[in-house]
């Protein structure tokens, strides 16, 4: 309900911070910048000017630099493996570099340098409470990765003084380094000559004597050849021992088989040992032949027959010879087994002796290798220290080889620390502060300032831009003046055109709901005048006062005491009987006299739904002027019954958060706005000039002569 309709509300909308954050898209950010560009540019320029003033007031700093080669000395002879030596050299370089850096920053060295310079050069630092710290704060030392280059820089406002100070520091540092190196090498030379080399010589002599004594005690033998010979002898003994044991085993098995024959006469006959002996093999053949013949004759002759008795006697004789032969062979086996057993014992003893000799030989070989390795190590160590002694004697009187000046410092021409960075920082800080100022200003006043902002921040198409209202009279605060060519009339005609075009996509929808987020935004004016321009196209229009809590349209546009919405909802009248002609040509009105009870439930009543259905049948368009959607819950329900919903916002008054909340409430109820209508916009600058091209006098004459003939006006 708009303020021009006379209703008041005490509700104040509180914007949702989460919706505000979600609405901050690049497109909306650009729109905010476009809206607050004066504030943004002012803050940015102001901070930038402050940075420029500070930059111009600061004096530049100059940095003089001296380049040194810092290389740790490496021994000519390295006793470590290549990989270990490489890793050790890297660690040596890192430690050496840190040592030299610490020496360059030494307070004692810095004070000696300052006291040795003229007052004009070192006076500024000597007057400080801590001269060494003041000097060290301006000193910077950097190394170049993967190289032995160290750069010593000094920063000062005077370029000549900066170069003088850094050169004096480097020169004094080199003098001290050379002195320490000479002292160190002299001390090293004395230690090598008096202590280290004699100790190494003694160790070498002891190792040589131990090896000679060992060789003398062991007969100067070649232990590797001796050990190999004993291994071969042991192999031959093992081979022979294995052969003898196999023979003993086989002969024992044969003897056991033959013993079985001797005892039983038959069991050993089929053992392979029996057939392996040639004498037994012939006797066995005879025995088998006699058995075959005896078997043949047994079936023919009687037991007492002479031939049968002869065969049995012959068989007994052959078996007796077999037993005698077996006994002789067994006696031979026993002698052979005894001989083999004796040889086995001798071989076992020989094997034990060889194993003991091998153990002694292995121990001698190990001792020989250990003594020989100790002698070789002592010899190498002695030779390496002899070389080191020679190097030390050569370098004892020279300057330090690990550090030298590559490039002395010269007065710099260009400033090292240009204060321009302050200006850059000020520009960046100004950009941040300007953005924060825009955000703060928007938090204090986020009113929609243009139709473009409505589209950007609400995501709704603007169907109409209504200029600030010109009241027809105090009695009709929602009606436009009678001049049909005014900018407001043109705006409503444009709204009508957009609306009808959109309704064609909705299967010729008829019911149009007009609402706004808050009160006083002009929705009643839009609903009334939209009904008016729709009726101007010879359409039958019904205007329903959907302000169930504060109805006013009936009192403004029709008979306040006449019939209205109450009678229809109570079932006392039909829609056709309850509507009244309004003050607008072609527009009927249906409203209530006073606020209705249970207003929030009216849209869900069966009679109200039947009312809308009847209105669709009787009228071409039904326009509902509803309560503000953020203030009344029934508005979103009415939106579900309507074919299209228009959200009215007032430029310069409606807040973005409030408008988004209203649109969201409608969308949540599946009554998403068809578009927005912006009230209170400006008049296009070219419109008055375009309207002034017409000839009102000529049009009046044509109207008087021909009547309201649109073709005649043209």
What separation lies between the terminal Cα atoms? 40 Å
SSE class: alpha/beta
Number of strands: 12
Strand order of the largest sheet: 5-12-11-6-10-7-9-8
Q: Please, what is the average pLDDT? A: 77
CATH class of the largest domain: Alpha Beta
Quaternary class = single chain
User: Which percent range describes the beta-strand content?
Assistant: 5-15%
- Please give the largest β-sheet: 8 strands, mixed
Give an overview in words:
- Helix content is 61%, strand content 10%.
- By secondary structure, it is of the alpha/beta class.
- The protein has 5 domains: 29-58 and 419-444, no CATH class; 62-174 and 402-407, Bacterial polysaccharide co-polymerase-like, CATH 3.30.1890; 223-395, Helix Hairpins; 447-683, P-loop containing nucleotide triphosphate hydrolases (Rossmann fold, 3-Layer(aba) Sandwich); 688-714, no CATH class.
- Strands 5-12-11-6-10-7-9-8 form an 8-stranded mixed β-sheet, sandwiched between helices. Strands 2-3-1-4 form a 4-stranded antiparallel β-sheet.
- Strand 11, helix 22 (656-668) and strand 12 (675-681) form a beta-alpha-beta unit.
- Helix 9 runs antiparallel to helix 12.
């Amino acid at each position: 309900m708009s303020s021009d309709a006379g209703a008041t509300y005490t509700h104040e909308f509180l914007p949702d911070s989460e919706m505000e954050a979600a609405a901050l898209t690049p497109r909306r950010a650009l729109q905010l910048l476009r809206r607050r560009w004066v504030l943004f540019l002012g803050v940015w320029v102001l901070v930038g000017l402050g940075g420029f003033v500070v930059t111009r007031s600061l004096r530049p700093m100059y940095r003089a630099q001296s380049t040194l080669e810092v290389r740790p000395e490496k021994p000519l002879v390295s006793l470590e493996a290549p990989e270990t030596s490489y890793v050790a050299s890297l660690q040596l370089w890192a430690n050496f570099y840190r040592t030299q850096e610490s020496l360059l920053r030494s307070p004692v060295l810095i004070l000696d340098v300052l006291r040795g310079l003229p007052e004009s050069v070192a006076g500024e630092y000597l007057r400080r409470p801590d001269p060494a710290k003041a000097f060290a704060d301006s000193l910077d030392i950097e190394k170049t990765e993967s190289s032995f280059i160290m750069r010593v820089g000094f920063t000062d406002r005077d370029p000549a003084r900066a170069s003088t100070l850094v050169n004096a520091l480097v020169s004094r540092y080199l003098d001290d380094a050379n002195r320490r190196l000479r002292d160190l090498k002299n001390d090293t030379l004395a230690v090598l000559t008096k202590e280290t080399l004699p100790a190494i010589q003694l160790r070498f002599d002891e190792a040589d004597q131990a090896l000679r004594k060992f060789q003398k005690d062991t007969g100067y033998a070649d232990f590797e050849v001796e050990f190999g010979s004993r291994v071969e002898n042991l192999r031959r003994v093992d081979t022979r021992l294995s052969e003898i044991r196999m023979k003993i085993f086989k002969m024992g098995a044969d003897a056991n088989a033959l013993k079985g024959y001797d005892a039983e006469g038959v069991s050993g006959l089929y053992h392979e040992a029996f057939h392996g002996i040639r004498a037994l093999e012939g006797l066995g053949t005879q025995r088998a032949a006699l058995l075959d013949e005896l078997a043949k004759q047994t079936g023919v002759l009687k037991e007492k027959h002479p031939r049968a008795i002869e065969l049995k006697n012959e068989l007994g004789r052959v078996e007796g010879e077999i037993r005698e032969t077996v006994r002789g062979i067994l006696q031979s086996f026993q002698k052979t087994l005894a001989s083999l057993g004796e040889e086995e014992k001798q071989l076992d003893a020989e094997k034990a002796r060889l194993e003991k000799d091998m153990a002694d030989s292995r121990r001698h070989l190990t001792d020989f290798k250990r003594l020989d390795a100790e002698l070789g190590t002592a010899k190498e160590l002695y030779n390496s220290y002899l070389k080191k002694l020679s190097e030390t004697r050569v370098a004892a009187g020279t300057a330090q080889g690990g550090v030298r000046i590559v490039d002395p410092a010269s007065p710099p021409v260009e400033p090292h620390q240009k204060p321009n960075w302050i200006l850059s920082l000020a520009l960046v800080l100004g950009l941040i502060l300007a953005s924060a100022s825009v955000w703060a200003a928007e938090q204090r006043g986020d009113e929609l300032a243009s139709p473009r902002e409505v589209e950007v921040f609400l995501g709704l198409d603007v169907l109409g831009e209504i200029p600030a209202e010109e009241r027809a009279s105090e009695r009709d605060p929602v009606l436009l003046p009678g001049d049909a060519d005014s900018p407001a009339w043109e705006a409503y005609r444009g709204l009508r055109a957009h609306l009808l075009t959109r309704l064609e996509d909705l299967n010729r929808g008829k019911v149009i709901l007009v609402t706004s987020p808050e009160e006083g935004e002009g929705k009643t004016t839009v609903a009334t005048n939209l009904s008016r321009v729709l009726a101007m196209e010879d359409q039958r229009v019904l205007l329903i006062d959907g302000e169930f809590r504060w109805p006013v349209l009936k009192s403004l546009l029709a008979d306040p005491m006449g019939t209205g919405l109450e009678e229809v909802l109570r079932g006392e009248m039909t829609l056709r009987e309850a509507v009244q002609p309004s003050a607008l040509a072609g527009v009927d009105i249906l409203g209530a006299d006073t606020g209705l009870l249970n207003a929030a439930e009216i849209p869900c009543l069966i009679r109200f739904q039947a009312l809308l259905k009847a209105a669709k049948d009787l009228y071409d368009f039904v326009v509902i002027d509803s309560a503000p959607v953020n203030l009344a819950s029934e508005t979103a329900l009415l939106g579900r019954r309507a074919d299209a919903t228009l959200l009215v916002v007032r430029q310069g008054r409606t807040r973005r958060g409030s408008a988004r909340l209203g649109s969201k409430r409608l969308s949540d109820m599946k009554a998403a706005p068809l578009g927005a209508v912006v009230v209170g916009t400006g008049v296009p600058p070219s419109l008055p000039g375009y309207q002034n091209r017409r000839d009102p006098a000529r049009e009046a004459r044509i109207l008087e002569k021909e009547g309201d003939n649109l073709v005649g006006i043209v």
